[in-house]
Amino acid sequence: MTDINTYEGAPEAEFRDFVALLKPRVMSLVVFTAFVGLWVAPVDVHPFIAFCSVLFIALGGGASGALNMWYDADIDAVMRRTQGRPIPAGRIDGNAALSLGLILAGFAVMMLGLAANWFAAGFLAFTIFFYAVVYTIWLKRWTPQNIVIGGAAGAFPPMIGWACATGGISIESLLMFALIFFWTPPHFWALALFMKSDYHEAQVPMLTVTHGRPATRRHIFAYTLVLAPFAIWLGLTSVGGPIYLAASVVLNALFIHGGWQILRRSEDAALADGYAVERRVFKLSLYYLFLHFVALLAQNLWGTW
């Protein structure tokens, strides 16, 4: 990790630069899945406590993003899609990002403990540590399984939301975790198929770099097959029902079909059309996860089993 400070003559940081440090797109997924986990839990939570819980989970997610950007500033400066981030662009000092991440992390964990319960707060603290240390500092630069193991960090929020309501863990929250955990590799590997040069130049051992695109294609299809049973199983629990099951069956059929299309593609064909299929499957993966959690909400509002 290279310490990147504000470049001489660089524009001064604006408020939006500090917001960008928190990775708002990633935070939106954290907020939504945590909210769903809390909402579908079989415990009534006061609206104010629910709002505060989701807010502090979001701040914890933002803290993770800031710590990630602080440590990965050297990588971000090399990769084209991340060169405009506040630290490599010289708008924010690396030490300022580190301070912001640590302060937000401590504040979020403490306030979640006071607002909800200390089990959920401890879970949030572990999640921040897992993303910032286990994934960012250790796994990301060491193993092509970085996104597989590290994907757990993004899968914890619905479990934290559930823990805010119930104070514990259940099969339902574990399956929500599994849904995101097994979705993460094919989602990111589809992106890596048409972003390989970035990871190669940054010397990040993404699967496409270490094992090549054909192996990555096989892994994507395999993970869509592994993912489907867990996604559908969630529909058979106390938070499931016909709405969720119907949505899950359709979405998994589409995702498996997309994985199959990627598997059958030759590199020449993919290069010829600009990786159109890979880009389409990547976009499908975004809808896949979002619509699963929308279906959980809809099922809860309509009534479960």
Automatic annotation (TrEMBL):
<dbReference type="InterPro" id="IPR044878">
    <property type="entry name" value="UbiA_sf"/>
</dbReference>
<feature type="transmembrane region" description="Helical">
    <location>
        <begin position="243"/>
        <end position="263"/>
    </location>
</feature>
<comment type="function">
    <text>Converts heme B (protoheme IX) to heme O by substitution of the vinyl group on carbon 2 of heme B porphyrin ring with a hydroxyethyl farnesyl side group.</text>
</comment>
<feature type="transmembrane region" description="Helical">
    <location>
        <begin position="284"/>
        <end position="302"/>
    </location>
</feature>
<comment type="subunit">
    <text>Interacts with CtaA.</text>
</comment>
<feature type="transmembrane region" description="Helical">
    <location>
        <begin position="48"/>
        <end position="71"/>
    </location>
</feature>
<keyword id="KW-0472">Membrane</keyword>
<comment type="pathway">
    <text>Porphyrin-containing compound metabolism; heme O biosynthesis; heme O from protoheme: step 1/1.</text>
</comment>
<feature type="transmembrane region" description="Helical">
    <location>
        <begin position="175"/>
        <end position="194"/>
    </location>
</feature>
<dbReference type="GO" id="GO:0005886">
    <property type="term" value="C:plasma membrane"/>
</dbReference>
<keyword id="KW-1133">Transmembrane helix</keyword>
<keyword id="KW-0812">Transmembrane</keyword>
<keyword id="KW-0808">Transferase</keyword>
<dbReference type="GO" id="GO:0008495">
    <property type="term" value="F:protoheme IX farnesyltransferase activity"/>
</dbReference>
<dbReference type="InterPro" id="IPR030470">
    <property type="entry name" value="UbiA_prenylTrfase_CS"/>
</dbReference>
<protein>
    <recommendedName>
        <fullName>Protoheme IX farnesyltransferase</fullName>
        <ecNumber>2.5.1.141</ecNumber>
    </recommendedName>
</protein>
<dbReference type="InterPro" id="IPR000537">
    <property type="entry name" value="UbiA_prenyltransferase"/>
</dbReference>
<dbReference type="InterPro" id="IPR006369">
    <property type="entry name" value="Protohaem_IX_farnesylTrfase"/>
</dbReference>
<feature type="transmembrane region" description="Helical">
    <location>
        <begin position="118"/>
        <end position="139"/>
    </location>
</feature>
<feature type="transmembrane region" description="Helical">
    <location>
        <begin position="26"/>
        <end position="42"/>
    </location>
</feature>
<feature type="transmembrane region" description="Helical">
    <location>
        <begin position="92"/>
        <end position="112"/>
    </location>
</feature>
<keyword id="KW-0350">Heme biosynthesis</keyword>
<comment type="similarity">
    <text>Belongs to the UbiA prenyltransferase family. Protoheme IX farnesyltransferase subfamily.</text>
</comment>
<dbReference type="GO" id="GO:0048034">
    <property type="term" value="P:heme O biosynthetic process"/>
</dbReference>
<feature type="transmembrane region" description="Helical">
    <location>
        <begin position="220"/>
        <end position="237"/>
    </location>
</feature>
<dbReference type="Pfam" id="PF01040">
    <property type="entry name" value="UbiA"/>
</dbReference>
<keyword id="KW-1003">Cell membrane</keyword>
<feature type="transmembrane region" description="Helical">
    <location>
        <begin position="146"/>
        <end position="169"/>
    </location>
</feature>
